[in-house]
Amino acid sequence: MAETKPSLFTSLSPALLHLYDINHTAVVIIDVLRATSTIATALYNGARCVIPVDSVAKCIELGKKIEAVIAGERDGKIAEGLEYGNSPFEYPREFIEGKTLVLTTTNGTRLLHMALERGADYVVTGSFPNLSVVSDYLLSQNRNVVLGCAAWKDRTNIEDLLFAGAVINKVKSHFTIHCDSSQIAETMYLKAKKDLFEFMQEKNATHYHRLMGFGLEKDIRYCLTPDVANVLPFYEAGKLQIR
Amino acid sequence: MAETKPSLFTSLSPALLHLYDINHTAVVIIDVLRATSTIATALYNGARCVIPVDSVAKCIELGKKIEAVIAGERDGKIAEGLEYGNSPFEYPREFIEGKTLVLTTTNGTRLLHMALERGADYVVTGSFPNLSVVSDYLLSQNRNVVLGCAAWKDRTNIEDLLFAGAVINKVKSHFTIHCDSSQIAETMYLKAKKDLFEFMQEKNATHYHRLMGFGLEKDIRYCLTPDVANVLPFYEAGKLQIR
Fold it and tell me: ipTM of this complex > 0.85?
């Protein structure tokens, strides 16, 4: 009986994604700080769609062509030539409603493109702000799942792992999980869930450290808050749109 | 002050080893189930040296040439053409004392050769049976450290992570650790340390599952026991020898 359930795997780094079969699989792109939190937030606040691109040059070119907001970061700061960055607070309803956002980031949008190149056909983005809707989506599909952590330049990070763990904690009874990375993720989440921010601080998580150095405590706290932008960004025909 | 300490990183998979600088660095090869536990045990029981090779063919060829014990596994079983496998119980003193062991394994010896190819100059092997001596070695060197998990066909596993965490727990005050993987390792170890075997069972660790299927509970229990073969296998001139 157990073996008839769909499988669930967690990929701890883009450099490990090739180990998992992602065809006919729901792939969740996870970049908690901050790309996928910001994508959920912009769509929740009424953005028409988010177009993830893998280079600053493409971002600028496409932005001009379709008159979109062009945004993105490299190494945690607004990339040169772009107008906006990677903070969810840059995309309130009064600014982003009805607009298209073209976004490029160091890790999250890169992983998304890697998944597409490998033939992923069901790609959504996940973050604490849309935890429940992502989990519900996975439960609603009778389909294998890969939770893809964007990490930081291929190094596994705590916050993406915690989000994977939060999803697993919600959906595990519906999946067959023969995957140590998934067990690690859930164990870490159960340890951290009482206060995710405090946990990140206590562990001196590298990304916590980096963003605190930029004065971005507010961003970190928001990006660790479940269900404050509960929409499902689904990738289709080059765009992330609410489904 | 903190920044003058040497650095410590944990590589969760051979596929991530390239992210870390391993020159002038102590690299600990970790393959808890069972290669590095067996290497420590064979040397502890008097083997003259262990020669790790990366293919069964090389193992057979070299074994003939130097009249050594040839051993190794593929997918957890004795590889075809070899005489012995990857169980520490195959190498009691009465058998292995004074002999040379040529060993090839799916993950551990492969990672060791990857590290050598990348120019690692201080390579040791670590496992629970030699936890304290490995930790003491790292403390005695004023040198950066990379803890390299052998994983299973590049997929991160719980037991190698737990060993990395056990080492970190012992040595952390002497190192600068800006590495989420290391934080994850120590957190997991602290959660598991009361009963490592029970933890592996509770999490249905993939390798636990695989070896239990082969009836190897005794091997798992031994390989999770600290300090029962407390020697330091140090790699030099093609051989692992006690240092």
Answer: yes
